[in-house]
Amino acid sequence: MAAEELVNSSHWGAFTASLDEQGLSVKPDPADPDPSELLRNIPASFDKGVRVLHPSVRRGWLDDGPGPSTRRGSDDYVEVSWDRALDLLAAELERVRSTYGNPAIFGGSYGWASAGRFHHAQSQIHRFLNTIGGYTRSVHSYSHGASSVLLPHIVGDEAPLYRPTTWNVLSEHTDLFVCFGGVPAKNFQINAGGISRHTVRESLEDARARGAEFVTISPLADDLATVIDAQWISINPATDTALILALCWVLLSEGLCDLEFVDKYTVGFEEFARYLRGQSDGIAKTPGWAATICGVDASTIADLARRMAGCRTMVTTSWSLQRARFGEQPVWASIALAAFLGQIGLPGGGFGHGYGSTGGMGAGRLPYPLPTFHQGVNPVNDFIPVARISDMLLHPGSTYDFNGQSRVYPDTKLIYWAGGNPFHHHQDLVRLRAGFQQPDTVVVHEPFWTATARHADIVLPATTTLERNDIGCGRYDDIMTAMQQVASPVGESLSDYAILTKLSKRLAVEEQFTEGRDEWGWLEHIYERWRESIPDQFTPNENFAQFWAARHLDLPGADSKHVLYEDFRSDPEKFRLATPSGRIEISSPTIARFGYDDCPPHPTWLAPAETVAVGTGPYPLCLVANNPASRLHSQLDNGAVSVESKVLGREPIRLNPADATAREIKAGDLVLVRSDTGRMLAGAILDDRVRANVVQISTGAWFDHSSPEVAACIHGNPNVLTRDAGSSKLTQGSTGQLVRVEVEVYRGEAPDVVVHDQRLWMHPA
Ligand code: PGD
Predict the structure, then answer these.
(1) What tens digit of pLDDT does each residue of 219-230 get?
(2) Which of 358, 290, 346, 310 is nearest to 213 (CA)?
(3) Which among 12, 61, 112, 702 is annotated as catalytic?
(4) GO biological process: what's one of them (predicted)?
């Protein structure tokens, strides 16, 4: 008899799954017009070589008790019963909060976790920690940490990130898409929480078929889906700001700047215009000036500015641009450029930030919230900007700047993580290791033996979405999916909820945490509470049981014809922006008051180290360490698509053929990549879609530090190379996107990658 096909969902799409003796077979949802290839990674969820099968405690912690330890990351683990693990953990949580107070618990727990409204790992862990008195949290994201802090100063809130002009409007109205950082297909197949219909490619193709033109400005030609035949302007990494300033200069000097728009809707134009003309610093931001910085012809820049002024133009910047030192500048400059063009608030014109960075950007937004598992209230006020974790761990009590405040790092005694992989997402992983060695205790819930789990003291095996029931729906998705349990839990794993329920009982907060409900009770509760709360015209007829039986529910009402700032354009007094002036701030008096040398009061060219004397010095190449096409972040790095993409079992690094020849590197060679932060091994691929003097490697290969004498990572995790520095004092965002490196053929004995098989790296006690 054929195994039953059940439905489930992931950040990269809904699917059906069936399990039989052959294993798990996964098929895309038949209604999805452009399903993600990453569905082929999902069967690897059951790979016992990478799963945490039993509660495990680090031997050193078990023997010596809590305390800082340099053995974290290289110690043995002892498998213990659930009761023992949870008794130890409950006692340790009690010790830390009674001795040091709840701020000593760092529960930021940043990460993408999995799709599912109830079993969302961060919601679970935050609710639990709130019931025991709270935790120090992290704010903002690795995705757009710089923009999240900057945008409220410039446009009053984060609307460009959460309610951009929708694709339907763009494909109908935009004549020219000018895409800084492209609109990468690999990223638009993903959406946090789920994406049941992949439609961005179709929108791009519709626009192209109507005659729209696309220009992608990037060091990588394939940052814009090739199907739409885009013009590639190849640019030096991290120099977009200079190019945008030159575009503004052309508009200004050729009378193409919409002064009426600027006057009515913005403040700070004069100060910025003086800077463009060189009146404030002696350097006019001409195309000739920009050409020497960007490596783009002056005539190409001037022509582009004229083209932009001549038609309905959408200026877009990808999130990756701001994941760099001074990452605020290209975003702010792009808003100033769009203001100069005067099309903000018009259908298809203005600016966008993050089109293609996820599939949700530009999808219609529902006019009501989704079913939610409430996290409660955190009584602890303290927080860190998310990418400052190593600084916090290494320098408790020291001060740092952030968004106009001088703040003090808390003293962390216990780290509690579920649903994220800092040894994937953070920069300078050797430094992060040193940070993780400082607290008394590190606790991680994980389905997989990730590097974060391998640096923890107490590792609790968590189920994946295939091993539990949930309600699937992402923001910007208009289909809700019943996520049906496909298999029994692997090993002794439990859902985060089940783990925390048992823990809450030991800490006498079970009633507050569970409210007396089990998984089914919660699913029904959050669904029915959601159904009661949304406006009548959208309320589904289906009760929970009917939704579950139907397996899908259409969510009506998405505003698929939204135009960003249409209201503001119609009446800037009535629809004032939430900036101090109520207008778009081309120059910001607030930021001026902060007095930061690394974030001046208007968009400014500041040269990041990556841009200086490219092609020369000990690290002549600029590495672009961007998000992968073969998996989501570090998730399912052991999956089929990810494994097939590797070269000699390592993450592929792409080099321009000329750079490879100059270094006698051939396709398929094992290479050593060095930066002034660290060294890693990778497998070479030659590709002329990569600009000369640039190399590219994706993030997400699991950190393998088993042969430190060869390299900090022998598998190709670029975060051993990247620098752990904030984007600026204003935003303190992650700067993981770029780093200067040198690449050479690795001629030594190649150590095996061990992290995909626990029998190779674990030394069971
Ligand atoms: P993931 O690999 O998604 O990476 O960093 P993030 O930490 O989100 O990690 C999620 C982890 O959660 C996985 O290990 C997974 O197994 C686990 N997990 C999944 N479901 C569950 C669950 O139900 N319960 C529990 N307990 N665990 C679960 C992503 C971050 O990386 C992001 S968002 C960006 S944009 C950054 N991008 C870059 C970049 O461009 N360049 C560099 N150099 N570095 C980056 N890092 C950032």
Answers:
(1) 999 887 666 789
(2) 310
(3) 112
(4) anaerobic respiration
Neighbours of 70 (CB within 10 A): 11
* Token pair listed for 450: 């990730």
Dist CA 430 CA 450 (whole Å): 15
CA distance 33 to 49: 34
> Residue 421 C-alpha to ligand 1 middle, in angstroms?
5
Separation of alpha carbons 210 and 171, rounded Å: 8
d(CA 734, CA 723): 9
What pLDDT score was predicted for residue 765?
47
Torsion, Cα 457 459 460 465, to 10 degrees, reads 140
> Does 110 qualify as catalytic in the annotation?
yes
**Which domains, ranges and CATH numbers included, belong to the chain?**
6-46 (no CATH), 56-140+372-475+479-554 (3.40.50.740), 159-362+565-585 (3.40.228.10), 613-755 (2.40.40.20)
Dihedral of CA 382/386/389/391: which sign? negative
Ligand 1 binding pocket includes 448 (Cβ within 6 Å)? yes
Longest dimension (CA), the chain: 79
Of 12, 61, 77, 110, which residue is the catalytic one? 110
Per-residue pLDDT for 237 more than 50? yes
Cα(436) to ligand 1 centroid in Å equals 17
Q: Is 484 in the pocket of ligand 1 (CB under 6 A)?
A: no
Q: What are 603-619's pLDDT values in tens digits?
A: 999 999 999 999 999 99
Chain-centre distance for alpha carbon 656: 26
Nearest to 468 by CA among 447, 454, 443, 449: 447
Pocket test for ligand 1, best of 186, 421, 623, 624 (most atoms within 8 A of CB): 421
Summarize pLDDT for 492-504 with one digit per residue, the tens.
999 999 999 999 9
* Ligand 1 binding pocket includes 123 (Cβ within 6 Å): no
Cα distance between residue 109 and residue 439, in whole Å: 15
Q: Is the pLDDT assigned to residue 277 strictly greater than 60?
A: yes
Does 738 have pLDDT greater than 60?
yes
Q: What share of the chain is helix, strand, coil (3-state, %, to 5)?
A: 35, 20, 45
pLDDT at site 228: 74
Dump pLDDT digits (tens) for 682-733: 999 999 999 999 999 999 999 999 999 999 999 999 999 999 999 999 999 9
Give the whole-angstrom CA distance, residue 508 versus residue 89: 14
Q: Residue 728, CB half-sphere, CA atoms under 13 Å: how many?
A: 27
- Determine contact, residues 490/50, Cβ cutoff 8 Å: no
CA proximity to 430, closest of 36, 94, 712, 662: 712
29-58, pLDDT tens digit by residue? 999 999 999 999 999 999 999 999 999 999
Residue 523 has pLDDT above 60, yes or no: yes
Ligand 1 proximity of 446 Cβ (cutoff 6 Å) = yes
Contact (Cβ atoms closer than 8 angstroms) between residue 242 and residue 206: no
- 455-473 residue pLDDT tens: 999 999 999 999 999 999 9
Cβ contacts of 542 within 8 Å, gap of 6 or more: 550, 553
Residue 116 in this model has a pLDDT that exceeds 90: yes
Report the relative pairing of strands 399-402 and 405-408 from DSSP bridges. antiparallel
β-pairing, 670-674 vs 679-686, is antiparallel
- Give the residue from 160, 325, 313 showing the smallest Cα distance to 247: 313
The answer to whether the CB of 447 is under 6 A from ligand 1 is yes
The average confidence (pLDDT) of the chain is 97
For residue 3, the model assigns a pLDDT of 79
With the most atoms of ligand 1 within 8 angstroms of its CB, the residue from 424, 460, 483 to mutate is 424
CA distance 502 to 87: 10
Q: Does residue 108 contact residue 354 with C-beta atoms inside 8 Å?
A: no
